[in-house]
Specification:
Elements (H helix, E strand, L loop, with lengths): L18 E5 L5 H8 L3 E6 L3 H11 L3 E3 L3 H6 L14 E4 L34 H12 L3 E7 L8 H13 L2 E9 L7 E2 L1 E9 L34 H6 L9 H9 L10 E2 L5 E2 L8 E2 L8 H7 L13 H6 L4 H16 L14
Parallel strand pairs: 1-2, 1-4, 2-3, 4-5, 7-10, 9-11
Antiparallel strand pairs: 5-8, 6-8
Helix pairs in contact: 1-10
Length: about 350
Amino acid sequence: MFDWKWKLADLPEPDGKLKVFSCFACGGGSSMGYKRAGYTVLGNCEIDPKVAKVYQKNLHPKYSFVMDVRDFLKLPDEKIPDELFHLDVLDGSPPCSVFSTAGVREEGWNKEKVFREGQAKQRLDDLFFFFIQVAKRLQPKVVIAENVKGIIIGNAKGWVNQIVKAFDDAGYVVQIFLFNAARMGVPQKRERVFFIAHRKDLKYPKLSMEFHSKPIPFKDVREPYGKAMDPDSMQAKLLKYRIPSDRCIADINERVRKVKNNGFSTPINRDDEPIQTIVAGSSLYRMCDGLLMTDRDIINCQTFPQDYDFMDQSVQYICGMSVPPVMMARISEQVYRQWLKGGDADEDAEAEEI
């Protein structure tokens, strides 16, 4: 079992037998999950130089490409280490904000935009297909890609059909899973879609994965006191009127101020259940004391290591943009058992394919 509380310093030295390369790596949430499951993470590709420095500081990659994945694809073979052509897993979390149900969705498709200071102007909705082209070029045994639940909802389903076809054209058989991190040992209700594919020539059986870990309530992982905020702010004033049934600031706004649809993206997390999804930019509140979640609250709920060095970057941004390490550890453990090693799924994993 992978505990939510752990340290990078406690990870054993990798044996080099199971090799992973991660694209869109951000702070290395998925990379740390592979490491916990016994894989060797060779390196990463990340467009944001500031975030790439944080990844390098904590994960010490052998190969680190600070560039757009489209530029990585343009590199000649001699510029790509031979090890990357012999991978067990190619990992990636193609940027997903344009598919999120909290965003503008369709209005943002097929458009270029600057998504973060220091990054180049780019489209996000087609990056998944460039990622699959990386798989086609490197030919790893397995490809694992993570995305938001919104990609399988409404009009976005058309993108899924194109993604499945792209995997097929690249020589891969893909399965699609919807997982809730709260049932995987993560103190957070984070629903994410995973595309898990294998090369057609390998003839692996169908993966069987459904997780049933007991949910971890916020009270078991949070700090005793929250982070203070401006007492004169509207949020601070509204939180004084919170009641146990409130789940976000919008609930208080509608009840107290008679204002609808204002504050849905600012959750109020209750003690008796896992917190709501950690996002990169919204305020995160605590029902217990009406204060903001602390950085340590966020680290614990995202199952980031206790000794992770965020350098000069926002804890919430790095965590909100990353896969919870425990979530990826559980998934990659099953990929090893059922495919890379062979054998049966563990007793906590049964079929739940979309």
